[in-house]
Specification:
The chain has 102 residues and is an alpha+beta fold. Helices cover 25% and strands 13% of the residues. The chain binds zinc ion.
């Protein structure tokens, strides 16, 4: 974009200052918050019914200590820790599996 010739006396220094300011803070536009890049840790929750739990539902949750890409990968990892997935949409924690709550 070329500076308008007849506006503000065509001050080259002013345009230079503005350009440097924008280069120094390219993502700090007013009213715009910095992008949040924190990793979201995926969690699998047990879907078994547990008569001993207050709401009748086992709410055991399990995640993985390092970032995994998606739930399919997380389930594959958790299957090495005793979690089961007898059918789609139903994840069973090791304790429930052992006690027959499937
Ligand atoms: Zn469970």
């Amino acid at each position: 974009m070329a500076p308008p010739a007849d506006e503000a006396g065509h001050d080259p220094q002013k345009w230079q200052d503005e350009a440097e300011e924008r280069l120094a803070a390219p993502r700090r536009a007013p009213g715009r918050r910095p992008t949040v890049t924190a990793d979201a840790y995926l969690v699998i929750r047990c879907d078994a019914n547990d008569p001993a739990a207050s709401d009748g539902q086992c709410d055991t949750e399990h995640s993985w200590p390092v970032r995994v890409a998606h739930h399919t990968e997380l389930r594959r990892l958790l299957s090495t820790r005793g979690w089961h997935r007898p059918r789609p949409g139903r994840d069973i924690c090791p304790d429930c599996w052992k006690q027959g709550r499937r």
